Give the backbone structure.
Amino acid sequence: MPRRVIVVGLLALGLAACGGSAPTASPSPATPAPTAAPAATPSPPPTAAPSASTGAATTRIAVCDAVSLRKTPSTTGELVARAYLGTKVRITEAVTGDAYTAGACGESGDAWLKIDRVGGKSVQALYGVPFVYSAAGFYR
């Protein structure tokens, strides 16, 4: 009899360790429902050169001598000073202004540079105005 008790005890222990004799359902992986692809949003068609651009300041160098620095982006704007060949200027913005003709040096156009530094110095300190404008076709 003690042997039966031991065998029954071992069987009970084995069944308890295995989780019993009742079958358990194994989870079946869920099948995801198909989703529709997102509709493409049409992008606007590219336009011609923008009339104004903003962003980080960049540096350009005058490739012509005695380039006009003006109060407004206009060929008739008040002349503030001149940038000479090799002068570095810092551009804060490119804007569209009056059309200009380059002549023997530079390129004709209507793009103007809004400048806040000339030769490494503040336009405000040099000329008493926050910005000057110069025709973009005379810089590289």
Summary: Residues 63-138 form one domain. Residues 2-18 form the longest helix (17 residues).
